[in-house]
Design a protein that fits this description.
Elements: E1 23-28, H1 35-45, E2 57-62, E3 68-71, E4 77-80, E5 92-95, H2 103-106, H3 112-118, E6 126-130, H4 134-139, E7 147-148, H5 155-161, E8 166-167, E9 173-175, E10 179-182, H6 187-200, H7 202-212, H8 239-246, H9 255-261, H10 266-277, H11 281-299, H12 304-311, H13 316-327, H14 331-338
Parallel strand pairs: 1-2, 1-5, 5-6, 6-10, 7-8
Antiparallel strand pairs: 3-4, 9-10
Length: 347
């Protein structure tokens, strides 16, 4: 993807008084796209505003051709008002799935038309895919040697076509810095909420999720959605244990304690938990404690030691290690970045 030095004339200008400019998300609409996935970025990024009522994001849809109709996988087309030049104005580019990728899907190579469109994307622009939109990023060489995910049903085929990519079919999305990929359909919501959370913190992302009536953070990964033989209806779930643990994150929680809530052996409970949630009980507990710590760092004046205690990490050092692993920042740096964001409201 080559450099385009000049900004497109339709890009929003910074506020001369404050320097404020919304983050521009450009969604690439390809023939055969799924209307549901196309609408996800507009719904999620179209909500957040700052305390002055200014939109934090501007969402634009473009085609690889001049403005005009783009056929969907349904019985209607959509009218796209921007051509590929809009990609040159993007801070983030999102590529939803398409069922008509042709040689991109069949052979892993870009068409001349698609390659020319992608050449408008400036270096260091954040790019993301939803479901089979990953084929476009892979064919463009953006994923070689990097971790990525796509719909679990397509993961093996994708891995064979692109052996240099480290495919993980168990997760809902992967954030590898400037390149993000997600699993099928609704995982695009998880990915977009994650980007809002990464940009502006959990308070804003959670409010977007609340107004969209979706969970702010889904537990586990794709493993829980893969078809398996129907379990015995008499078998218990692990729901009670998870609810019990969420009410006691500040306390030491042993695997045995969680299994006891469901009157299961540790071995049976662990297997059942993985089947339902997609990850181990220990991984799930760590995820919940990281989320609790993020919320407390954003919304309270508690010291780092106090946050560590209430989130169940025990010590500030333990919490620091887990946040560094999960988020790439220290608790202090996270609070400094996102504490101000707690005042932002969403309409």
């Amino acid at each position: 993807m080559s450099e385009v030095p000049e900004r497109h004339e339709s890009e929003p200008e910074s506020d001369p008084g404050t320097g404020f400019r919304p983050h521009r998300v450009v969604v690439l609409a390809l023939d055969g796209l799924l209307p549901f996935e196309l609408g996800i970025p507009h719904r999620i990024f179209g909500r957040p505003k700052d305390a002055l009522g200014r939109h934090l994001y501007e969402v634009v849809t473009c085609s690889i051709r001049p403005p005009g109709p783009v056929q969907t996988d349904a019985d209607f087309a959509i009218q796209v008002e921007h051509g590929p030049q809009a990609l040159a104005t993007a801070d983030t580019v999102i590529i939803p799935a398409s069922y008509e990728l042709g040689p991109v899907y069949d052979e892993g190579v870009l068409t001349d038309e698609l390659a020319a469109a992608l050449a408008h994307i400036r270096p260091h622009t954040r790019v993301a895919s939803i479901c089979t939109g990953i084929y476009v990023l892979a064919a463009a060489g953006r994923l070689d040697g990097r971790p990525a995910t796509t719909h679990w049903a397509d993961a093996q085929r994708f891995q064979r076509l692109f052996p240099k990519i480290k495919v993980d079919a168990d997760v809902l999305f992967i954030d590898d810095g400037d390149v993000l990929t997600s699993a099928g359909v609704a995982a695009g919501i998880d990915l977009c909420l994650h980007m809002v959370r990464r940009d502006h913190g959990t308070a804003i992302a959670n409010e977007v999720a609340r107004r969209t009536v979706v969970p702010p953070h889904r537990d586990g990964g794709q493993a829980q959605y893969i078809h398996r033989p129907v379990p015995d209806p008499q078998q218990s779930s692990t729901t009670t244990a998870r609810a019990w643990a969420l009410g006691r994150l500040h306390e030491p929680i042993q695997l045995r304690d969680m299994a006891d809530q469901e009157a299961m052996s540790v071995r049976t409970f662990t297997r059942r938990f993985r089947e339902e949630v997609g990850i181990s009980p220990g991984q799930w507990l760590t995820q919940q404690r990281v989320e609790r710590a993020r919320h407390l760092l954003e919304s309270t004046d508690l010291s780092v030691d106090q946050v560590a205690g209430q989130a169940g990490f025990g010590t500030a050092q333990s919490m620091r290690q887990h946040l560094q692993a999960a988020l790439g920042v220290t608790p202090t740096a996270y609070r400094r970045t996102f504490r101000r964001a707690a005042s932002v409201w969403v309409s």
